[in-house]
Amino acid sequence: MSQFSAALLRNALGLLRALFASPRGRHVRRRSTRVRRYAAHPGPAVRPLPPAAPRLAEPREVFPADDLPLVRPYYTAHEQSRVQAAATARLQRWAAPRIPEPRIAEGDLLASDPPPVTFDDLAEAVRRWQAQQEHKQTAGVGA
User: Fold this and answer.
1) Could you report the per-residue pLDDT of 59-90, keeping only the tens digit for each?
2) 28 or 126, greater pLDDT
3) pTM recorded for the entire structure
4) Averaged pLDDT of the chain
5) Spatial distance between the Cα atoms of 27 and 13, rounded to a whole number of angstroms
6) In the 3-class helix/strand/coil scheme, how is the chain assigned residue by residue?
């Protein structure tokens, strides 16, 4: 037991030494020993003003605003067709049924015969089934 307590004390003392010792290796953070003096504040920076933009010459002709179309006709036609297509799509989404129609099951896909649809088909299926049952009974009696 004394071996374990000695090992425990040795590890604890090693931890305390590591905590209080100066750091070594790549974990050392070096600080500069030289004191750097701060430079004096230079004051507000003086920037030269940008040169003035050149003035445009007056137009040689004056056009009345009513004579000039503000938008090209092909752009207007494109915008109208785009709006019309969006409105048509919105109307189709609105008019579409919200709940889909229920699908009618097609019956057992693994069955050899399709399921009966009318009363006559049902009667025919029952007659076939009864004939099979009678055939099984007569085959079982003779054996």
Assistant:
1) 888 877 777 777 788 888 999 999 999 999 99
2) 126
3) 0.24
4) 80
5) 21
6) CHHHHHHHHHHHHHHHHHHHCCCCHHHCCCCCCCCCCCCCCCCCCCCCCCCCCCCCCCCCCCCCHHHCCCCCHHHHHHHHHHHHHHHHHHHHHHHCCCCCCCCCCCCCCCCCCCCCCCHHHHHHHHHHHHHHHHHHHHHHHHC
